[in-house]
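Task 17 of the worksheet. Students: predict the tertiary structure of the chain below and write it out as structure tokens. Keep your answer in the requested format; marks are given for formatting as well as content.
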Amino acid sequence: MNPSRRTAVAGVAALGLAGAAHAPARRIISLNPCLDAILVGVAEARQIAALSHYSREPMVSSVGAAARRFAFTYESAEEVIALSPDLVLASRHSSLATRNALKRLGVAVELFATPDSVAESLAQVRRVADLAGQAERGRAEVARIEAALAAAAPPRGARPVRALVFQRNGFSSGPDTLIDDLLRRTGFRNAAVDYGATRTTDIALDAVVADPAEVLLSGETLPGAPTWGERVMRHPALEQLKGRIRVVGFPQRLMYCGGPNLVEAAGRLAAARRQIT
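Model answer:
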């Protein structure tokens, strides 16, 4: 490419990025299952060029049947470019090579961090809605989530229930995480903190035996298969705790994402609390 041509292309790319910051995006692609759910919740269908391939995986996605209305990608730059988006929503876990390639080609990429609180998650809902030019839809979605959280709040003065959330492979989320915030809002105390977790980590079985939580909120696996928490409770070291720890199913797809997922997550946690108390 000659220097003048290179300069012209660079100028077009810069204009495209600047325009994306102000004008509503018309063709949006999401590369992340959490962003998929937000995008479907706040954008018009005609604005969604594609979702992530995770949107078709029930264990990860909460978009469900709605995802089948849209195209999807496996996160490669070639797939994304072929769909001619004017905005790509990506997380910090999205392919760095793809993100860099898109930026070089002048495609606007909005990068989102993993939210560590309900407030951060709601801010992401508002941001995606603003990028799509759908601020009113964003406000409505935030109001729906806030109403669900209010409905799931424990009665005033209720004793917090000690709960340990077991993700796949036995990982649990410690303090300053979205699940920790959600537990507190729905009447639980995060037992992972008592076991020394500082972020998301695995919890040693001997710690659980020594100081058992009241409930294991365990990610559901395949239909008919035991949850991770149920498998753990079969461990000889934990046999003695049967009857002292209650295992309650909590879908794995609700453990990772905020946004619209908070509605179902809050409802399920409130139901679990009522079962226990």
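Marker's comment: The domain at 3-113 is CATH 3.40.50.1980 (Rossmann fold). The longest helix spans residues 3-20.
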